[in-house]
């Protein structure tokens, strides 16, 4: 029985390490967050049809990968610079503040 305890301990440590970090690896231009709902405007489509940001309940547990700052998810699910959102970015209203 004493010989089994160190082996069991090693298995527990290996399992904890493997499950902790692999879930936090994200594709290029994405970052892992504990609450995906905390990110407002996430897709290119939202440039054209902006709804209100979702309300977030205390203790939000919806972990996952979201696009980094200035990037939005395109129709193929890839995070691109918001300027690359093509047809959606044409609907943006711009203002000339120099006049």
TrEMBL record:
Keywords per UniProt: Signal
Name of the protein described by the UniProt record: TIL domain-containing protein
InterPro entries, per database record: Ser_inhib-like_sf (IPR036084), TIL_dom (IPR002919)
Transmembrane segments: none
Domain annotation TIL: ranges: 26-85
The UniProt record lists the keyword Signal: yes
Any Pfam family matching the protein: TIL
């Amino acid at each position: 029985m004493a010989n089994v305890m160190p082996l069991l301990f090693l298995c527990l440590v290996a399992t904890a390490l493997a499950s902790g970090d692999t879930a936090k690896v994200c594709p290029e231009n994405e970052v892992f967050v504990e609450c995906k709902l905390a990110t407002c405007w996430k897709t290119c489509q939202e440039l054209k049809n902006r709804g209100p940001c979702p309300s977030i309940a205390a203790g939000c547990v919806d972990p996952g990968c979201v696009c980094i700052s200035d990037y939005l998810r395109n129709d193929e699910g890839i995070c691109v610079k918001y300027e690359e959102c093509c047809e959606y970015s044409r609907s943006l209203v711009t203002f000339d503040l120099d006049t």
